[in-house]
Amino acid sequence: MSDVYTDQMTRQSSEIKRLEEQFDLMTANIGYILHPSVVASLPENPRVADIGTGTGRFLLRLRTSYPDAILDGSDISTALYPPKESLPRNVTLTVLDAKQPFPEDLHGKYDLVHVRLLVAAMLPEEWDTVVRNLCLLLKPGGYLQWEECDFIGVKYIRGKVDSSVDSARFIGYAFRDALRERFQHGWSTLPKNMTDAGLTSVVSDIVSSDRLPETRDKLTITGMQAIFSWARLMTERGVEGSLSNKELDSLEKKVHEEDIKSGCYVRYDIYVFCGQKPLK
Fold it and tell me: Percentage helix, strand, coil, to 5, in the chain?
């Protein structure tokens, strides 16, 4: 399995808390965990696949609404999985690569296939293939729901008249530019990918990451944790242009103690895409 995610990011256990908090904050701003069109289509006890499941957060959150559903998560790595013995009886986590054809015994098995934030793990030419692979998992009438963000259009905003933003913008835009080729896709391409794969009733919902003011600080902090994790990985690997650990320590302190503390926060658009597999 080729894991391009680790070209730029890490799967250390220290990431678990950040990823779960990020999931919850994004979900709060979206306003739902499942799009209304998906909810309307699901049976009482659906079979659901979460692809790129990470910590399994989506499935565990969804279980509160569908306690008797069959909930299957998969990822290319088990590094972020909770202990198997801690999982509810109806939640199963396995290793699968969405860029490769899924086993035929999984074809046509799911009422819902869900994906969130795979952009850092996707090369531009891989989107069509992955969407087509996921569509094969759906039952006739089943839905694919996929959330991605427009990190190309990210902004670091003054929340107050005297807020400072320079350090956050510096490291934030460095991260954006380093992953620009990947960040240009997904949010801008998924409706066409879904339609080309044969899905119908494709809908798009867009919400700002700062819709709920009370989430702004925490979402900015979790975002910066990811960005500095990336920056330190680049330093460790000796990537040209990367900052020294001492420089990163100083910059990270300024981001938190000057920028975020003074009211600087991040804003980007969150996209939710849904498409339905035809009944025939």
Answer: 40, 25, 35
Query: Most distant CA pair in the chain: distance in Å?
Result: 60
Measured CA to CA, the distance from residue 34 to residue 31 in angstroms comes to: 9
Which residue in 251, 239, 140, 256 sits closest to 199, CA to CA?
Answer: 140
Give the pair of three-digit tokens for residue 178: 């380093």
Distances from the Cα of 181 to the Cαs of 170, 175, 178, in angstroms?
A: 19, 12, 8
Q: Are strands 91-95 and 70-75 parallel, antiparallel or unpaired?
A: parallel
- Alpha-carbon distances of 280 from 141, 180, 267, rounded to whole Å: 8, 39, 41
Pairing, β 265-276 against β 200-208: antiparallel
Distance CA 175, CA 13 (A): 21
Q: Which of 255, 224, 208, 58 is nearest to 145 (CA)?
A: 58
Q: What is the C-alpha separation between 192 and 174, in angstroms, rounded?
A: 29
What pTM value is reported for the model? 0.95
How far is the C-alpha of 56 from the C-alpha of 48, rounded, in Å?
A: 12
**Residue 107 · residue 49 · CB < 8 Å:** no
| Percent of the chain surpassing pLDDT 70 | 98
What digits encode the pLDDT tens for the residues 162-185? Answer: 999 999 999 999 999 999 999 999
d(CA 30, CA 7): 29
Write the CA distances from 1 to 20, 75, 82, 117, 180, integer angstroms.
25, 11, 21, 19, 24
Is 253 in a helix, a strand, or coil?
helix
Packed helices 216-236 and 245-254: angle between N→C axes, nearest 10 degrees:
170
